[in-house]
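Take a look at my tokenised protein here and describe the backbone shape.
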Amino acid sequence: MFFRSILKQLVGHRGRQLVRHYRVQRFPITKHYRKRLRGMTALEIGGPSNLLGYLGQFPIYSSLKSVDNCNYAEQTLWHSDAVKFCRNLVCEGTKLPVSDETYDCVIASHCLEHIANPIKALMEWRRVIRQRGLLLLILPNPEYTFDWRRPITTVEHLREDFRNDTPEADLSHLEEILALHDLSRDLAAGTSEQFKERCLRNAEFRAIHHHVFAPETAAQLMGEVGFSVVRQDVHDVNIFTLGSKS
């Protein structure tokens, strides 16, 4: 223990990070996405995400020129020091205080499922992306999450949410969520009573997965709002879809 303590002092925090960095098993697909995103100015919706950071399995932050952030509140359930944002916007992801075609790309990692009106959000994200810019959408693969019992949301249902201008306070999926959410795969949610209470306060916490996506619906949604799918990969819990603004 004494020698380990001395070694830690000699190596320092940065050195320990470097060791962990090389121990991480990165997804083989990472290099392809880094190449596409290299040097771009980005806006991340939600986050920050450890997955995308220096010590993550899909480290793309370091390939970007700059990253701004949008979150619905200053404090959320999700905390990370994986990246230092240049600018923080506190607003809804469906209504950005940003001029048209401001960014080269928008990134949303495990975020869209928390938004009640996905098509409205995607159209807003498209608005702030420059022509031929990119949208990187990372969604949870339900087979590996607590949503595995729930049916995949149809695109027609998402269109209906858009037509009805469904607000973020919407709880129309609550009955399904409470019945089919697998708490054994979501220990942080606590007991069924605690989970229900958090769901009822979703306007505050935004933890509900309003919708459940499959790779096919992610690709279809991209086309629905004016993106051409450049690449799509499924890796365990993650569905990666990269779209180009057309």
About this structure: Residues 2-141+211-245 form a domain with the Rossmann fold fold (CATH 3.40.50.150). The longest helix spans residues 2-23. The helical segments are 2-23, 30-37, 118-127, 155-163, 174-180, 192-200, 202-205, 215-224. DSSP finds eight helices and seven strands in the chain.
